Amino acid sequence: MADTRFLCGSTLSFLVLLLAYWYRQQAGEPSLQERMDTVLSSLLRAEGKVDVDGVLPPRVAIGFGGCLDIIVDGVALLSEAGIEFSSTPIHHNFIETEKQLAESFAYFFPPGAASERYVSNETLFRMLVSASRKLPEMRWSLGGNAPVMANRLAREGCDVLLGGRLSTEQMNVLSEHITVAGKPVDDADIHLILEYPTGAKWGDYTAGRANRYIVHSDNHNPMIDSLEDFASKLHNFKPALLIVGGLQMMDSFPFQAGQREARLKTLQNLMMTISRSTGTHFEMASFVEENLMKDLLHYIIPYSDSLGMNEQELPNLLSLFKGGNITVLSDPYPRVASILDQMRELYHLINSQELKKGQRRLTRLHIHTLAFQAIIVTKGSMWKNTMSATAKASLTANRHVCGSMQIDTSKAKLIMDDSFSVSRELGSQRIPFKESSPVSCWEESDYKICIAPVLVCTEVFQTAGGGDNISAAGLVLQI
Ligand SMILES: *[C@@H]1O[C@H](CO)[C@@H](O)[C@H](O)[C@H]1NC(C)=O
Ligand SMILES: *[C@@H]1O[C@H](CO)[C@@H](O)[C@H](O)[C@H]1NC(C)=O
Ligand SMILES: CC(=O)N[C@H]1CO[C@H](CO)[C@@H](O)[C@@H]1O
């Protein structure tokens, strides 16, 4: 008797819940799916606002480097290669032994932080490459920041000059709108991309988010050995934009004394002497060697009109600027307010330096995070269409990670809050997030800020190369 009553009671309350849910679906607020669809159509509208038809294709020069990416499941590769699980996460600047590889992977895998490491032991690296070939799901793709960005830009309608030494196989997968400056090579540098999805398990660890751990043992890229060929073609090419990236390949590489500085000086000279009518953009990447970062602050950043980086690289650069250490790991899910505060601070710090001969004011700063895209542009500077560019960067983030031009909102989620504060300062304005106009732009001081949410892809195809595609997509609408 008692049992039946209890059963009826709970059935009744279940029915009430069901009814409430049904009512909400019918008449109440839009469902999550409808909200996502509105965000998508609004972002697509913002992206499409810029009419690029009928104008001359923009000319963009981009360096440096190139490689063959081997993309594998990270955990499967470690297992195939017989690399044992390590319960001691250690931050190594470069990798010499199997033990160090396991310790380093253990450091980045649980938080799901992107990283890239030089392997100084050729035997170890060759062993990993041959293990990767045994994995059924391994894929090859054209890799390296510059070629990835070049292909993206060509696809968006640009004429591109690419500085990098590629193999003939690699050149075959480049768009016909790309001219390569740099002698061909027989053996391309290989980058092993150890991808892992959110929730992946390795020994006792679970990955907090999808990301990748990259290992390489490059010979060509650290020397930027296409630089001279690139420089000699650059002046005739007369690009609207010069993009510099791929310098992280110099990180922790065993250079001879003074060798790296000499290469960076040559690049500095190129950036100093290029016509003022050419905008310059530097794309940062994961750097761990503090001295290299300091060199970038000296040789590259003061000559850049624009900088692009992710949420890990921003606090590193800022900290270094203020005389501190590089932080290595930072919050992978930062709030909008804290990113904006860091962006303002970096923008003001860089622009408070006195300009020396050939140096440029920073007029554009693009930060790509998993949850949102943020761009700061100086008012009255060369950069156009900031709102559309932010929307395009955000859409590209989904397209890249899901591996499809067509965005499917059932395979995406929004992880930005319903509203965000424009600063962590007390009493700061809060901006509500509106599905029908998801890109928020406003002016402050001498610049404009735009923020767009990312429809975060939930069925990850590839995270590597994301930053490059996203940055390139943002830039193409701004020149
Ligand atoms: C390089 O890696 C191989 C394969 O793991 C290992 O046998 C060798 O000891 C390593 N060399 C050094 C110098 O650590
Ligand atoms: C910062 O760098 C200095 C010098 O390299 C080092 O001694 C110190 O331990 C570092 N501090 C942190 C917090 O990493
Ligand atoms: C989604 C997207 O655009 N991904 C591209 C990133 O760039 C590489 C190289 O151009 C392309 O192969 C991807 O399709």
Mean pLDDT across every amino acid position:
89
Q: Architecture of the domain at 47-67 and 144-188 and 219-476, CATH level 2? A: 3-Layer(aba) Sandwich
Structure class: alpha/beta
Which hetero compounds are present in the coordinates?
2-acetamido-2-deoxy-beta-D-glucopyranose
Q: Which band does the percent of strand residues land in? A: 15-25%
Strand arrangement across the biggest beta sheet: 7-6-1-12-13-14-15-16-21-20
The end-to-end distance, rounded to whole angstroms, is 77 Å
**In CATH terms, what is the fold-level topology of the domain at 47-67 and 144-188 and 219-476?**
UDP-N-acetylmuramoyl-L-alanine:D-glutamate ligase
- Helix content percent band: 25-40%
Give the beta-strand count: 22
The dominant shape is globular
CATH H level of the domain at 47-67 and 144-188 and 219-476: which superfamily?
Answer: Ribokinase
CATH first level of the domain at 47-67 and 144-188 and 219-476: which class? Alpha Beta
- Radius of gyration (CA) equals 24 Å
Largest sheet: 10 strands, mixed
Instruction: Quickly count the helices.
Output: 14
Q: Segments where pLDDT lies below 50 for 5+ residues?
A: 1-12
Question: What does it look like?
Answer:
With 479 residues, the protein is of the alpha/beta class. It has a domain at 47-67 and 144-188 and 219-476: UDP-N-acetylmuramoyl-L-alanine:D-glutamate ligase, CATH 3.40.1190.20. The chain contains 14 helices and 22 strands. It has helices spanning 2-26, 32-48, 74-80, 98-108, 122-133, 145-155, 168-172, 227-237, 259-273, 290-299, 313-321, 336-351, 386-402, 466-476; strands spanning 59-63, 67-73, 94-95, 115-119, 139-143, 159-163, 178-181, 190-196, 201-202, 205-206, 211-216, 241-244, 279-283, 306-310, 364-368, 372-378, 412-414, 419-421, 430-432, 440-444, 447-453, 455-457. A ten-stranded mixed sheet has the order 7-6-1-12-13-14-15-16-21-20, with helices on both faces. A six-stranded mixed sheet has the order 3-4-11-8-2-5. A two-stranded antiparallel ribbon has the order 9-10. Strand 18 and strand 19 form a beta hairpin. Helix 2 crosses helix 13 and helix 11 (313-321) packs parallel to helix 12 (336-351). The longest helix has 25 residues, at 2-26. The chain is globular, with a radius of gyration of 24 Å. The N and C termini lie far apart (77 Å). The structure holds 2-acetamido-2-deoxy-beta-D-glucopyranose (3 copies).
